[in-house]
Design a protein that fits this description.
Helix content: over 70%
Order of helices and strands: HHHHHHHHHHHHH
CATH class: Mainly Alpha
Strand content: under 5%
CATH architecture: Up-down Bundle
CATH topology: Na+/H+ antiporter like fold
Structural class: mainly alpha
Oligomer: single chain
Radius of gyration: 18 Å
Distance between the termini: 8 Å
Number of strands: 0
Largest sheet: none
């Protein structure tokens, strides 16, 4: 069991550690180029190839997308109640408490824990999370709706194209499949290296308030996921993906929005860093339960 657990966790955090150390040793690391390679090339190819070759049925992928929608919406509602009771500014922390790092961290963990089917289900969850973070997350930070950010994202078009191919059972040329497989192979290591580099940049921020909120991020994501898994009587793999994705640490995109709209960016950065450190404990603990 220990060997299986280490084979899942160590590659993920090891790649992130590479990015962390690299950024510390070479501060001039071009994170923007790294991010653009991931967003515009690696991730769209990963999404397309994983979904059109998924062992999961289209119905299972649609269901996971629905669970993600319900779960994240429930987490937003619970987070709003918690922040109001704790008298903490919702415009700064409602987004971070609601949206996890389902791409950089969630997809690799689902892949190593549950194989290609787990990766496909993890991507289905990530697709909904990404859209909600882009639309609702921007609304929470700014107070207004911004459709342009969504329409500019190649991830959206990759997901739409995948749905068309799967829905109409279209045959994809082997050349396209192999090309997207190779380019999609860039996505996971690049996402993890970029995560590590981001954490290295955020490591010096104030942490006191963020440490407490990091624990709440885990709890507020876990409660709806457990309820959904029990209500829909999900199988082992779907339950595992749902629980892992719902409790991922705070997504780095929240820091981008917090900095852009001047919503306590240092505190949000601290929350991202603290919740990622907490994930070093929570992810192995969850895997022990899920795989045991």
């Amino acid at each position: 069991m220990l060997q299986e657990l280490l084979s899942i966790v160590l590659p993920v955090f090891g790649c992130a550690l590479v990015g962390f150390i690299w950024k510390r040793v070479k501060p001039e690391l071009d994170e923007e180029t790294l991010s653009e390679l991931t967003v515009y090339i690696g991730s769209p190819c990963l999404i397309f190839h994983a979904l059109v070759t998924a062992e999961s049925s289209p119905e299972a992928l649609r269901s996971m997308g629905l669970y993600a929608l319900i779960g994240i919406s429930s987490t937003i509602a619970l987070s709003a109640v918690f922040l109001r009771m704790a008298r903490i500014e919702a415009s700064s922390f409602l987004g971070p408490l609601s949206f996890g790092n389902t791409g950089n961290l969630g997809i690799p963990i689902c892949f190593f824990a549950f194989g290609n089917e787990g990766k496909a289900l993890g991507i289905a969850y990530f697709g909904v999370s990404f859209l909600m973070n882009s639309v609702v997350g921007e609304l929470l930070f700014s107070g207004h709706f911004a459709l342009k950010r969504v329409l500019r994202s190649p991830l959206v078009y990759a997901a739409i194209l995948s749905v068309i191919v799967v829905g109409f059972e279209l045959e994809v040329p082997t050349t396209v499949l192999r090309t997207t497989e190779l380019l999609g192979g860039l996505a996971i290591p690049l996402m993890l290296i970029a995560l590590g580099a981001s954490l290295a940049r955020l490591a010096g921020v104030k942490m006191q308030k963020s440490i407490a909120l990091a624990g709440m991020r885990f709890v507020l994501g876990l409660i709806p996921a457990l309820a959904l898994a029990a209500f829909f009587e999900l199988d082992h793999r779907a339950t595992g993906v749902l629980l892992l994705q719902s409790t991922t640490p705070v997504g780095v995109f929240n820091y981008v929005l917090a900095r852009h709209y001047a919503r306590e960016p240092d505190q949000v950065a601290g929350l991202i860093f603290a919740s990622t450190l907490l994930a070093i404990l929570t992810i192995p603990a969850m895997l022990i339960v899920l795989l045991g």
